[in-house]
Automatic annotation (TrEMBL):
Annotated source species: Arabidopsis suecica
Protein name as it appears in the record: RING-type E3 ubiquitin transferase
Alphabetical UniProt keywords: Ubl conjugation pathway
Keyword check for Metal-binding: no
Molecular-function GO terms, alphabetical: ubiquitin protein ligase activity
Catalytic activity: S-ubiquitinyl-[E2 ubiquitin-conjugating enzyme]-L-cysteine + [acceptor protein]-L-lysine = [E2 ubiquitin-conjugating enzyme]-L-cysteine + N(6)-ubiquitinyl-[acceptor protein]-L-lysine
């Protein structure tokens, strides 16, 4: 079992965020390669399509330019981005690492990173904390707006290491305890709610039949009990209790809602504490 777990950890990929300027991102990539500890490397780039399209020496908004010009310019952008990513892959090869590349198109780089972490279930991620020119020996905080956004918004299951000029500045650890607790809450929610929202027609028919038979029985009993003095009040209270049990079919539901609210509050507070 231990060997299986350790081999799984070694096979886990480290995703490294890179920009269009290779020279500015090389130091952070080299840090990731030197600290990969046998893990595979994947270069992650968020491509921002240009909002302006050059046509005959003049720039037009992409929404107003003709389709032919837009497609031609987008093709050039894609080819240029591919060339940039190949440069990063060459740097990895020169350092003895055969890396992969992942490119995602989005208007916002930071939102694109958060989305990629979510979609690909990324567990280890490296990105810049600030531009290299802002680095100092005492630097401990995130300076980049993008870094702060990712630190707060990215999935709690992902460990994010923020670097600057080839130095580790800050690590946002993955909070697995809270994630496991949330998983337990979700399982409890399914146990409590799914039986009540079943759409199986056979099950629904059986439920209706049971309700019908119970109604027939209760109506016969009510006719007998109403003829006896002092029983009408008890019958009304029982009916009220039955109605309340239909509204709140399971007392555990309230506990689930309370616990889940507390957990999300805890996650939110920890996100802000780790990223301020």
């Amino acid at each position: 079992m231990e060997e299986t777990v350790s081999s799984r950890i070694l096979e886990e990929k480290i995703y490294v965020a890179v920009g269009r300027n290779v020279w500015k991102n090389t130091s952070n990539l080299l840090w990731a390669l030197q600290n990969s500890e046998g893990n595979k490397i994947c270069i992650l780039h968020i491509h921002q399509p240009s909002p302006m399209i050059p046509v005959l020496g003049t720039k037009f908004e992409a929404s107003t330019a003709d389709d032919v010009s837009v497609r031609a310019y987008r093709g050039k952008e894609t080819a240029k981005t591919d060339k940039i990513l190949q440069e990063y892959l060459s740097i990895c090869l020169r350092n003895g690492v055969q890396a992969e590349k992942l490119c995602f198109e989005m208007d916002s780089v930071e939102k694109g990173i958060v989305e990629m972490i979510h979609q690909h279930r990324i567990r280890k991620f490296v990105m810049g904390a600030a531009a290299d020119k802002h680095y100092s020996m005492k630097m401990e905080d995130l300076k980049s707006r993008k870094a702060k956004f990712v630190c707060k918004q990215a999935s709690a299951t992902c460990q994010i290491q923020f670097t600057c000029k080839g130095n580790l500045i800050h690590t946002r650890e993955a909070r697995m305890d809270e994630v496991r607790a949330l998983s337990v809450l979700l399982s409890e929610f399914q146990r409590l709610v799914l039986p009540l929202t079943s759409t199986d027609p056979i099950q629904s028919l059986n439920v209706e039949n049971e309700r019908g038979s119970s109604l027939d029985t209760s109506s016969c009993q009510s006719a007998d009990t109403l003829s006896q003095p002092g029983t009408s009040l008890n019958l009304a209270q029982e009916e009220q209790n039955d109605a309340s049990s239909n509204v709140f079919p399971c007392s555990g539901m309230m506990n689930f809602l309370i616990n889940s609210t507390k957990l999300w509050q805890k996650l939110t507070i920890q996100n802000h504490e780790h990223c301020e």
